[in-house]
Design goal:
alpha+beta; Jelly Rolls; 5-stranded antiparallel beta sheet
Length: about 375
C-alpha cells in the first residue's frame, strides 16, 4: 500500500504541473508580449490630429499662380491663409535653426515674412537663395535639398531650416501631401515684393543698424503655457517677434500690445511677454547674435611644391571624383546620406521590412534599420 500511495502522490504532482502551473506560465508569456511574426506586423495607430485653430488672417498682399521661383502662391483651399501653425505645445523652448550670416553690404534692411507652398518634386525648381533666412514649417512637410552639398532635410510643423545666401536649394512637398511654410528673411529695405518666393505677409520697419563681422543668425521657438511669462532680452540689432499659435501680450517701454496668431512685430529692446489667453501659445524670435571669428588658417588652394615637402601621389584608376549625389541602390537616399543614417547604400531596403530606405527616412520618418519600424 505504501508503494501505491507513493506513486499516487507522484501522479498528483505531475497532474498539477500540467494544469495549473503550466497554464500560468503560458499566460505570463502572453502578458509580457512575447513577440511573434504576426504581432510585429500590427499596423500602427495614427495619432489624432489636433484641430486647426480658427483664426482671422491679417490683411496681406495676395497673388495667384506661381512666384518668380516657381513656387505656388495660391492658397488652394477655402481656409484663410495664413493660419496658426499646427504645432503641439509641450512647454519647451529651443533654437530650432541657425547659421552664419554677414551683412556688410546692407546699408539698410528689414525683416520680411513670406508664405510659400512648395511644389512637387517633379515641379520644384533649383533656386539660389538671395538672402540669409529661415524656412519655418506651418503645415505638412517639406523636403529641402542643398544643391551645393547634395544634403537633404525634412522639416515638419514647428521645425525650421537655415538658408545661406548664395547657395542653390530645391524644396518640395511629399507626394500628395501639400505643404505650407513661412520664409523669414532679412532683405534690403527696397527689395521688391514681386521678387519674393511667395506671398509677402509682413515687413518690418528698417532695422536700426547692422553689426560688423560674421554673425550667428538664430531662430528661437518658445512655448508659453497659460499664465506664464517670459522675457526677450535687448539684442545688438533689432529682432523679430512672431506669434504662431495662440495669443500673447507684449510689453516694452512704450506700452503693451496684444498679438494674436499669426502676427509679427519688430522689437528694438527688451520686452516682457505674458500669456493670459487661457490656452498655450507658441512664438518665434529671429535675432542677429554673437560675432563668429574664423580661427582656422586660410586654405591654400595652390598645388604644394617639393620645397613645401609635397609627396608625389601616383594616380589611380578610380576614375572621376565621386558624385556627391550618387544613389547606388536607387532608393531615393543618396549614398552620403546613407552613411549618415547607417543604411546600406547597395541595398534599397536595408531592414527588409518592405519599405525602401528613402521612403522611411524622407516620407514616413520611420527607422530604416529597424524591421519593426514601418508605416
Amino acid at each position: 500500500m505504501t508503494v501505491v500511495r507513493h506513486w499516487l502522490a507522484v501522479a498528483s504532482v505531475v497532474a498539477l504541473l500540467a494544469t495549473g502551473w503550466g497554464a500560468g506560465s503560458i499566460a505570463l508569456a502572453q502578458d509580457q508580449g512575447s513577440p511573434g511574426l504576426e504581432a510585429t506586423r500590427t499596423a500602427r495607430v495614427q495619432p489624432e490630429q489636433t484641430p486647426e485653430t480658427d483664426t482671422t488672417a491679417p490683411d496681406s498682399a495676395q497673388s495667384n499662380g506661381q512666384s518668380t521661383d516657381g513656387e505656388s502662391t495660391d492658397p488652394g483651399s477655402t481656409d484663410p491663409s495664413p493660419n496658426a501653425a499646427d504645432i503641439q505645445i509641450t512647454g519647451l523652448d529651443q533654437t530650432i535653426a541657425q547659421g552664419l550670416a554677414a551683412f556688410d553690404e546692407f546699408s539698410e534692411g528689414i525683416w520680411r515674412v513670406t508664405e510659400l507652398k512648395p511644389l512637387s518634386v517633379d515641379e520644384a525648381p533649383a533656386v539660389t537663395a538671395p538672402y540669409y533666412g529661415f524656412l519655418y514649417q506651418m503645415d505638412g512637410n517639406t523636403i529641402i535639398r542643398n544643391n551645393v552639398s547634395g544634403k537633404r532635410a525634412r522639416i515638419e510643423p514647428g521645425e525650421a531650416y537655415f538658408f545661406s545666401a548664395g547657395d542653390s536649394y530645391s524644396r518640395y512637398h511629399e507626394p500628395d501631401k501639400p505643404s505650407r511654410a513661412w520664409l523669414i528673411e532679412i532683405v534690403p529695405s527696397d527689395a521688391s515684393d514681386a521678387d519674393a518666393a511667395g506671398t509677402v505677409l509682413w515687413k518690418s520697419d528698417p532695422i536700426g543698424s547692422f553689426p560688423d563681422n560674421t554673425r550667428d543668425l538664430e531662430l528661437v521657438a518658445a512655448n508659453l503655457m497659460d499664465g506664464a511669462t517670459a522675457e526677450v532680452p535687448d539684442y545688438e540689432a533689432d529682432a523679430l517677434l512672431m506669434i504662431t499659435v495662440g495669443s500673447i501680450q507684449v510689453t516694452d517701454s512704450d506700452g503693451t500690445v496684444q498679438m494674436d496668431a499669426p502676427a509679427a512685430i519688430k522689437i528694438t529692446g527688451k520686452v516682457d511677454i505674458e500669456n493670459t489667453s487661457g490656452d498655450p501659445a507658441n512664438y518665434l524670435v529671429g535675432k542677429i547674435g554673437a560675432a563668429v571669428d574664423d580661427a582656422l588658417p586660410a586654405v591654400d588652394s595652390e598645388t604644394p611644391t617639393d620645397e613645401a615637402g609635397a609627396t608625389d601621389v601616383t594616380p589611380t584608376d578610380s576614375g572621376d571624383a565621386a558624385d556627391p549625389n550618387l544613389d547606388t541602390d536607387g532608393d531615393g537616399l543618396i549614398d552620403t546620406d546613407e552613411a549618415v543614417y547607417g543604411t546600406d547604400p547597395t541595398i534599397a531596403d536595408t531592414d527588409f521590412d518592405g519599405y525602401s530606405d528613402g521612403d522611411e527616412v524622407l516620407i514616413y520618418g520611420t527607422d530604416p534599420l529597424d524591421p519593426n519600424s514601418w508605416p
